[in-house]
Amino acid sequence: MTARIAILLGILAVAVAVAIAAAPRTEGAEQRVARIAAELRCPVCQGLSVADSSSDTAREMRSVIQQRVAQGRGDDEIRAEFRRAYGDWILLSPPLLDPRGAVWLLPLVVIAAGALAVASRVGHPVSPTPTPEQLALLRRRASTEEAVE
Amino acid sequence: MSWADLGGGVLRAALPLAVWGAFASGYAARARDGRMLASARWSALGALGLVAAASLSMVGALLSHDFSIRYVALNNARETPAYFSAISLWASLEGSILLWTTVLAGAVAFVAWRGTRGLPRLASTALAVLFVMLSFFLVLVVTPAADPFVRIDPAPLNGRGPNPLLQDHWLMGLHPPLLYLGYVLFSIPFAYAVASLILGEGGDRWIVATRRSALVAWALLGVGIVAGAWWSYAVLGWGGYWAWDPVENAAIMPWLVATAYLHSVMVEEKRRMLRTWNIALVIGAFSLTILGTFLTRSGVVNSVHSFTQSAIGPLLLGYLTAVLAFSVGLLLWRAPRLADPGPVGTPLSREAVFLFQNVLFVAATLTVMLGTLYPLAVEAISGDQVSIGSPYFDRVEVPIGLALLFLMGVGPQLPWHGASRSTLERQFAAPVLAAAGGAILAVLIGLRGPAPVLGFALAAFVIATVVQEVQRGIRARRTLHGEASWAAFVNLFRRSGRRYGGYVVHVGIATMALAIVMSQAQAVQAEATLAPGGSMQVAGRTIVFERFRDVIEPRREQVVAELRVVDGSGSGPLAAALTYYPNATGAIGSPGIRSSAGDDVYVILAAYDARSRAWATIQVKVIPLVSWLWIGGAIVGLGAIIAALPTPKRREQLAPIAVGASSAAGAK
User: What is the DSSP letter of B549?
Assistant: First the structure.
């Protein structure tokens, strides 16, 4: 009984901690610049984001983002500007609501299908004694394994 | 005789031996012919000797700067230090394939001499499969596109020198060979699985026979990946260690599938289930190692690892297709013999957790694969260029990773077949309270967002389950064997190494999870342009830019910014540099790193006044707990060693088949 209470309290504490941490906060200009820069590809690097790269191009792009944020432009507006200049390639991940956003679906589909497949096999009690079919199968297998060697 | 004659000659001589070995071991398996098996064994040893001699010839050519060999001329220079000359064996495509072939020849020789003792037919068949694979690589390595010993005439007076990124850090001597060993050793479980299918065996003898090689391959690949992350952190100068670069993805995919496999084979051993699934996982892990080689060595993707465009791409793609067609075809043909005997236990059984874990690992792998291949597919179909990078992978893989951490804590606590509710409550009380402690701590130190807080909670949960399991094991040994606490502790790891070594691995992964959360969420960075003598403040530390120092060496020139880090506990020197190599157009950044258990101070020389050395732009990152990522990787390796070491005296017994069928084991 005490164990059950401890578990419930523990889960409650984790839930409260996650809720506190997930509470929306106002984002400072610096954090906004960093977030937008992290979603853009550094055009002269190999797979690094504008936020991660220390190349000159990335620094210039960061200062452009900084100016746009200071001018009060929206996220989408800033992204669209880079998209016009460099093409879709500049976005490090395809937008969700886009024909190419299908790439976001696959992980969900795989997990859902796999979980269903597992769930369909789980939950049956296991019989403590072998059924006649199981015994026959085991005997057959034992004899083939002997034959193999 | 020149190195080229020697190396090229022995390399070509190995092919007939490998082909003969494939024939001899196949025949030995069919006709149970001991003389043919002996012949296959000696062929394996001979092939290994020849290929190793070829590799050593290349090392000799590199060390003696023999620029009459094209590979040496392109990857070495007179100024290259001996260490970097020797490891230039894997600095480029041809040498890498040669190293790969050498490791594969080693795997063949290992199976020929060690594996064929216990299970002659299964092992001989597996040996034939391995010889066929070796033959492919021996053909590949002498095709003009991949031949390491092609000459250049006239020989240049000096070579071009190795890729600058590869001659900057000692870790380059460790990361690639570990990865190759890991990659290639997966061939052994694969070959046994295929052999088991060819012979039509329904049992899990192939799993028992390759348990250790699968574990060792998994561990080497894992430690190799962590070493690569470390190298990237120490050399590439962006303060990160993982960029979801196509080659990182290529390495992590087989590792993920192999992790799923290491767990699901336990279900097969204990419950005689998942036979088809386990073979499919081995085929998957092995095919992904070839896919990785194809992606990185054919130049289809851009990455820090891809060498020049190469004609071996189609050959590797053909090999991958052949491997997949052959092994999947075999599996489908034999699937009826591999039918599972019964249903899984309750949702609260260990086998059910393993199955859900498998689903998550496969989903994680397919996501990485999709993200890596999708841009290629879009470009091939529509000609458009799109990117899939960190934002995508982070958003998808982080939740999967958290779910896996959760299962990692739950799995070891659940018994096979299922458990009663009251047992579960007793077992989970302490770990759940630890998770609560982790979550509260995360909030108190200022972590924001659900994922970091859950990461802390789940890492604490996993570590608590392991502590509890070890305590329980010690108690059990004290009562059963009357051992003292410390002796019981040591014996847990020596006598039940597979289980408790696995728990050590879990602790290593939880440690890495904490390090990843902290280094990603709590890193602080700042940038300032300073004159010599100037200073900046970052995260409670003062960084003083003391002076410039120009270093001129025969092989490179460096502009070094000498810095000093001052914090509460004292001060220490640190240097960030830009390095110019004659064979590179731009400067290579060499970051300065001051590591401690709490955090790393990471400094980059971003720009400087080239004319009068009047100013330098210094970027500073303070990255908490990042060194625990490498320590966590070492703990994973340690756990794998504990799990792979043979149990003293008593040999591990096979678990009895499924449900009390000791008669079956007796009948054998």
Answer: E
Q: What separation in angstroms does the CA of B543 have from each of A49, B536, B576, B637?
A: 26, 5, 12, 36
Chain A to chain B, count of Cβ pairs less than 8 Å apart? 232
Task: Give long-range contacts, CB 8 A cutoff, 24+ apart: B312-316.
Answer: B312/B93, B312/B97, B312/B140, B312/B143, B312/B145, B312/B146, B315/B140, B315/B143, B315/B145, B316/B140, B316/B290
Selecting from A3, A41, A88 the residue whose C-beta is nearest the C-beta of B426 gives A3
Q: Say which of B341, B387, B443 has its CB closest to residue A41.
A: B387
Give the helix, strand, coil percentages of chain A, each rounded to 5.
Answer: 65, 5, 30
Please say whether the beta carbons of B350 and B416 come within 8 A. yes
Q: Which two tokens stand for residue B525?
A: 């960075």
- Map residue B574 onto helix, strand or coil: strand
Q: Helix, strand or coil for residue B36?
A: helix
pLDDT score for B275: 85
Q: What is the DSSP string of B278-338?
A: HHHHHHHHHHHHHHHHHHHHSSSS-STT--S--THHHHHHHHHHHHHHHHHHHHHHHGGGG
- Of residues A149 and A128, more confidence is placed in A128
pLDDT in tens, B436-461: 999 999 999 989 889 999 999 999 99
Q: What are the distances in angstroms from CA A132 to CA A125, A129, B174, B661? A: 17, 9, 55, 12
E strands, B386-523, where?
none
Count Cβ atoms below 10 Å from residue B34 Cβ, excluding itself. Answer: 10
DSSP reduced 3-state for B552: strand
Taking each helix axis as running N to C, give the angle between helix B312-334 and helix B120-140, from 0 to 180 degrees, rounded to the nearest 10: 160
Q: Taking the mean position of all CA atoms in its chain, how far away is CA B628? A: 18
CA distances from B370 to A87, B303, B546 (A): 21, 17, 48
Tokens, residue A103: 């790439």
Name the more confident of A4 and B659.
A4
Question: What H or E segment, with its residue span, contains residue A88?
Answer: none
Report which of B410, B421, B280 is spatially closest to residue B351, judged by C-alpha positions: B410
Helix (H, G, I), strand (E, B) or coil at B216: helix
Q: Which of residues 41-80 of A touch B (CB under 8 A)?
A: 41, 46-49, 52-54, 56, 59
Residues of A in Cβ contact (< 8 Å) with B439: 13-14, 17-18
- Would you tell me how many other CB atoms lie within 10 Å of the CB of residue B139? 15
**HEC sequence for B580-636:** ECCCCCCCEEECEEEECCCEEEEEEEEEECCCCCCCEEEEEEEEECCHHHHHHHHHH
Count CB neighbours of B380 within 10 A: 10
Strand boundaries in B454-569, DSSP class E: 524-530, 535-538, 541-552, 557-567
Is A101 in CB contact (< 8 Å) with chain B? Answer: no
Residue in chain B lying closest to A135 (CA): B661
pLDDT tens, B72-113? 999 999 989 999 999 999 888 889 899 999 999 999 999 999
Residue B269 has a CB neighbour count (10 Å cut-off) of 17
Q: Where are the alpha helices (DSSP H) in B186-299?
A: 187-199, 205-209, 211-235, 246-271, 275-297
Q: Are B100 and B180 in contact (CB under 8 A)?
A: yes
| CA–CA distance, A37 with A46 (Å, rounded to integer) | 15
CB B654 within 8 A of CB B269: yes
pLDDT band at A141 (very low <50, low <70, confident <90, very high): low
Q: How many CB atoms lie within 10 A of CB B541?
A: 18
User: Which residue in chain B is spatially nearest to A144 when comparing CA positions?
Assistant: B201
* pLDDT tens-place string over residues B584-602: 877 888 899 999 899 999 9
The closest alpha carbon to B186, from B154, B152, B222, belongs to B222
Residue B43 burial (10 A CB sphere; 0-12, 13-18, 19+): buried
Cα B177 from Cα B155, distance rounded (Å)? 29
